């Protein structure tokens, strides 16, 4: 059961990262925040470098591939979110649960019992209700996309979810043969390199003021701790991608409470009810046999 608690920690920190990211972007651009907290995260994991060696060439390739999947996931989500309404994008992001479950069942041959299927239904139902509440509350203020919500940008949103799910699937594969220190260090290094290449190609400028943004540092700390917990959980032979995908949705509880505290969001009672449904699904899938 220790791996379930580790994934739960990851989910809660993931929710905290969403709050910190939004606060950080009040002072700096999206790219400044993303690049800076990733670089800081790499600096934070540098003490693991002495324990990160000794990998075969194939693992460098696989970690680079995982990192590239996360980079593409960010790229797809960024461009689709620019064109699609937030409410539509949020509902499309539910496919992460379905993609993660599909990968676990088809490629890792993970069996899903009645409790796990029931838990997935509750989690998906709670997330859908949460997105519908967000849609209703934003009807009068939500910015419309620059153009029609075309099939192309919907596909980008789905690709983002698919790349995220594939990265999580690869975590499980990689942690069978390497350590969490090896995976975390090289993953962070590769993704920073991808960001640098992207910045050079796009010729984007960064402001040094981002170093004074405390929310960026909070992002990096939560990122490092959360990923470490997730990698260790993946290294546990008893852990399952299908269940971990559901437990990660615990992030919604933090974003709901944080939304009320930091952004004065409305409909909190209804959103908390959705969170209760999601948590019930997580408990059903993770703790019932």
Question: What does this entry show, briefly?
Answer:
The chain is mostly helical and 289 residues long.
Descriptive notes:
The chain is mainly alpha-helical. It has helices spanning 2-24, 30-45, 57-83, 86-92, 95-107, 114-137, 151-174, 180-202, 214-235, 241-247, 251-263, 268-287. Helix 5 crosses helix 7, helix 5 (95-107) runs antiparallel to helix 10 (241-247) and helix 11 packs antiparallel against helix 12 (268-287). It is globular and about 45 Å long. The two termini are 12 Å apart. The model is unreliable at 139-147 (pLDDT under 50).
Distance between the termini: 12 Å
Largest sheet: none
Q: Helix/strand/pairing class, anyone?
A: mainly alpha
Order of helices and strands: HHHHHHHHHHHH
Radius of gyration from CA coordinates: 19 Å
Low-confidence stretches: 139-147
Give the helix tally.
12
Overall geometric form: globular
Helix content: over 70%
Strand segment count? 0
Mean pLDDT across all residues, rounded?
Answer: 87
Strand content: under 5%
Secondary structure: elements and pairs:
Blueprint: H1 2-24, H2 30-45, H3 57-83, H4 86-92, H5 95-107, H6 114-137, H7 151-174, H8 180-202, H9 214-235, H10 241-247, H11 251-263, H12 268-287
Notable traits:
single chain; 289 residues; mainly alpha; 12 helices; 76% helix
């Amino acid at each position: 059961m220790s791996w379930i608690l580790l994934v739960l920690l990851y989910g809660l920190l993931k929710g905290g990262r969403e709050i910190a990211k939004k606060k950080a972007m009040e002072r700096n651009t999206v790219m400044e925040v993303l690049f800076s907290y990733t670089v800081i995260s790499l600096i934070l994991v540098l003490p693991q470098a002495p324990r990160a060696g000794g990998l075969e060439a194939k693992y460098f390739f696989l970690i680079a591939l995982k990192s590239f999947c996360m980079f593409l996931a960010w790229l797809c989500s960024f461009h689709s979110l620019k064109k699609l309404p937030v409410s539509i994008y949020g509902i499309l992001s539910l496919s992460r649960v379905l993609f993660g479950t599909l990968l676990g069942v088809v490629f890792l041959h993970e069996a899903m019992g009645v409790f796990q299927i029931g838990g997935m239904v509750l989690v998906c139902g709670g997330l859908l209700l949460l997105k519908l509440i967000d849609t209703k509350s934003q009807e009068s203020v939500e910015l419309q996309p620059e153009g029609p919500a075309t099939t192309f940008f919907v596909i980008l949103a789905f690709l983002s979810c698919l790349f995220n799910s594939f990265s999580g699937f690869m975590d499980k594969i990689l942690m069978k043969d390497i350590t969490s220190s090896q995976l975390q260090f090289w993953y962070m290094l590769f993704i920073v390199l991808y960001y640098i290449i992207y910045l050079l190609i796009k010729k984007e400028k960064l402001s040094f003021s981002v170093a004074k943004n405390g929310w960026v540092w909070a992002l990096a700390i939560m990122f490092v701790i959360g990923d470490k917990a997730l990698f260790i959980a993946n290294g546990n032979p008893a852990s399952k991608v299908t269940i971990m995908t559901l437990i990660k949705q615990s992030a919604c509880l933090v974003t709901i409470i944080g939304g009320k505290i930091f952004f004065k969001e409305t409909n909190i009672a209804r959103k908390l009810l959705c969170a209760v449904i999601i948590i019930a699904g997580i408990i059903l899938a993770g703790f019932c046999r």
